[in-house]
TrEMBL record:
<dbReference type="GO" id="GO:0005886">
    <property type="term" value="C:plasma membrane"/>
</dbReference>
<dbReference type="GO" id="GO:0012505">
    <property type="term" value="C:endomembrane system"/>
</dbReference>
<protein>
    <submittedName>
        <fullName>Uncharacterized protein</fullName>
    </submittedName>
</protein>
<dbReference type="GO" id="GO:0005388">
    <property type="term" value="F:P-type calcium transporter activity"/>
</dbReference>
<dbReference type="InterPro" id="IPR023214">
    <property type="entry name" value="HAD_sf"/>
</dbReference>
<dbReference type="Pfam" id="PF00702">
    <property type="entry name" value="Hydrolase"/>
</dbReference>
<keyword id="KW-0460">Magnesium</keyword>
<dbReference type="InterPro" id="IPR036412">
    <property type="entry name" value="HAD-like_sf"/>
</dbReference>
Length: 160
């Protein structure tokens, strides 16, 4: 069982893609659940090569730094991950020259939030530590709002 995608997430992921922003999902869920969620939210497509787009946290963690940087480019989702796996992904992407935004809601997200270029926390379910580690707090805990605020700030589409 899984919760359905929240309203507006699919559209928000598409807007990110149009803007050249790749959305990656890092979750503690098992790979099958993570894949189903990523497919429903359009983070992953049926055509995507699952062997390159999906990885378990443990496998990612065990890679050499150089291998991690190469794989990080291709990852759409990481399942069975730990907070340290999220941090390793952020570090690998930044080392490859990417600007990285992290959305966190828990105390264990603080290290990845600190390492990110853009730090966002969820305002309702977010812990005090996640909020204090962030630059922006999303008041309604909605990914669609994250995208709307971000796209508005960079002029991708008009604020309303």
């Amino acid at each position: 069982m899984q919760d359905p995608c929240r309203p507006g997430v699919e559209d928000a992921v598409r807007r990110c893609e149009i803007a050249g922003v790749k959305v990656r999902m890092v979750t503690g869920d098992n790979i099958q659940t993570a894949r189903a969620i990523a497919l429903e939210c359009d983070i992953l497509t049926l055509e995507a090569d699952a062997s390159e787009s999906i990885i378990e946290g443990k496998a990612f963690r065990e890679l050499l730094d150089s291998e991690r940087e190469e794989i990080a480019e291709k990852i759409s989702e990481m399942g069975l991950s730990s907070p340290n796996d999220k941090l390793l992904l952020v570090k690998a992407l930044r080392k490859s020259g990417h600007v990285v935004a992290v959305i966190g809601d828990d105390t264990n997200d603080a290290p990845a939030l600190h390492e990110a270029d853009i730090r966002l926390a969820m305002g309702i379910q977010g812990t005090k530590v996640a909020k204090e580690s962030s630059d922006i707090i999303i008041l309604d805990d909605s990914f669609a709002s994250v995208v709307k605020v971000s796209c508005c700030c960079i002029g991708f589409y008009p604020c309303n």
